[in-house]
Amino acid sequence: MSEENVEYAPEVCCHCEGAGCMYCNKKGTVMVAQPSQKCRHCDGDCCIYCGYTGWERPLKEY
Prior knowledge:
Layout lengths: L7 E5 L16 E5 L29
Antiparallel strand pairs: 1-2
C-alpha cells in the first residue's frame, strides 16, 4: 500500500483518554493509519515516537 492510499480513522487519544489535549488538538481523537495499532515503542503509554498519542502512524495535523 503506498502512502497516498493510506486510510485513516479516528481513535481515542491515549494521552487524554478522549478528554482533549494539545496532542489531539483538543478533539479527544487522533486520525490513525488503518489498521490501527498501539505504538510499538510505548505500547500505548505515549512517547515521542507516537507524538504522545499512543498510536502507530498518527496523521500529523499542522
